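FAQ

Q: What does a record look like?
A: Structure on top, sequence underneath. For example:
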């Protein structure tokens, strides 16, 4: 009886140990680059090494972008004789371990993609039934981040399927950030905290400002469509568990103003900042936007609070986010079809966040104002804020108590 009890406790402890995700990862929203938005499945070893080089040479690694993620299309069409995945030998002749070593040699982290179904969205081998084999393969290659998609998953329940891969990753002993890419269909924000480190809240993004592009049974979504897609989910985000608004389209045929607004909104909403453009050929203005330290600091704030819409007046949307040390970030986005002259009277706009018990009273607290995109001081809140905001552009400020 005593031996049986000991054995039962041992099995229970193993079960508990296996039912965890790797902790102390993604304590701020992950930052990096993903291949899908620009290249789809048309990826190869030379391209990925070039992206790694550009992340370093363009100052993006030093700005905080660390994960280089290969999306769908990296693997061969069949598994090997042992059931293991391997890289397409034409696209990746040196193999995935060597590629991961190159990425690591640049001071970056190696991310990879697969899918919970029998096949990936592009028809390559999925992980269904091979979760533990695939997880160990990734660990052997030095993978640091797994994006796990949801195509070809007939009769699977999302929460259970993602738990299986979570447990498989944990069993390897290697800390791997787990990105749940289930598109928000089964409310992953309600169950994802114990399973993954981030979860998609929508279908795929597309490089337009406010559109929906239909593909039959599913749609791609413009930037402003995704921002407005989900309600009341900000309470589920925080250190180690984030609402993911998808890879960014900054630099992908948007105007410079739209790029700034896009980047400002992903930052204030505490979304992962995963670039999706060809950073090897990015314009100076795009690179300036993506590497803006003040905006990134809002996204990476240690409190991990997701911002929210404060008001919409005169088609100027105002979004706010409480920060550490009683600072606040504010984004004003111009949704008009012409430039707008902003006049913001602080005394008429006391701000509060009931969920996180944060507030500021401008009648008693005077704050300094910093324009983050232009890196300049705009005075303080003792008098109204005046600024001209272009079409689809954003004024993003940080206020700090004097």
């Amino acid at each position: 009886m005593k031996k049986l009890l000991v054995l039962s406790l041992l099995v229970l402890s193993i079960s508990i140990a296996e039912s965890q995700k790797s902790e102390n990862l993604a304590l701020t929203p992950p930052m990096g680059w993903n291949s899908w938005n620009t290249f789809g499945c048309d990826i190869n070893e030379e391209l990925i090494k070039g992206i790694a080089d550009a992340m370093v040479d363009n100052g993006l690694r030093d700005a905080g972008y660390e994960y280089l993620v290969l999306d769908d299309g990296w693997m061969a069409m069949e598994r090997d004789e042992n059931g293991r995945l391997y890289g397409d030998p034409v696209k990746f002749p040196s193999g995935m371990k060597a590629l991961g070593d190159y990425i690591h040699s640049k001071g970056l982290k190696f991310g990879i993609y697969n899918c919970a179904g029998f096949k990936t969205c592009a028809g390559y081998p999925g992980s269904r039934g091979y979760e533990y084999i695939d997880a160990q393969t990734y660990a052997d290659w030095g993978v640091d981040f797994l994006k796990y998609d949801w195509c070809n998953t007939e009769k699977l329940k999302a929460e259970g399927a993602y738990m299986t891969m979570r447990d498989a990753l944990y069993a390897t002993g290697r800390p791997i950030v787990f990105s749940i890419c289930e598109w928000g269909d089964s409310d992953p924000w309600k169950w994802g905290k114990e399973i993954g480190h981030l979860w998609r809240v929508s279908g795929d993004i597309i490089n337009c400002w406010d559109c929906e592009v239909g593909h039959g049974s599913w749609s791609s979504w413009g930037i402003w469509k995704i921002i407005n897609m989900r309600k009341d989910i900000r309470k589920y985000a925080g250190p180690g568990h984030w609402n993911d608004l998808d890879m960014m389209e900054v630099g992908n045929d948007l105007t410079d103003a739209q790029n700034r607004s896009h980047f400002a909104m992903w930052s204030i909403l505490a979304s992962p900042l995963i670039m999706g453009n060809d950073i090897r050929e990015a314009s100076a203005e795009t690179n300036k936007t993506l590497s803006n330290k003040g905006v990134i600091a809002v996204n990476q704030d240690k409190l991990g609070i997701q911002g929210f819409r404060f008001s919409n007046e005169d088609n100027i949307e105002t979004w706010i986010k409480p920060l550490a040390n009683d600072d606040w970030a504010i984004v004003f986005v111009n949704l008009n079809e012409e430039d707008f002259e902003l006049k913001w009277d602080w005394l008429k706009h006391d701000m509060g966040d009931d969920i996180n018990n944060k507030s500021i009273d401008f009648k008693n607290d005077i704050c300094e104002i910093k324009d983050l995109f232009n890196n300049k001081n705009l005075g303080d809140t003792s008098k109204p804020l005046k600024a001209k905001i272009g079409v689809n552009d954003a004024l993003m400020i940080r206020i700090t108590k004097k």
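Q: Is there anything notable about this one?
A: Residues 2-18 form the longest helix (17 residues).
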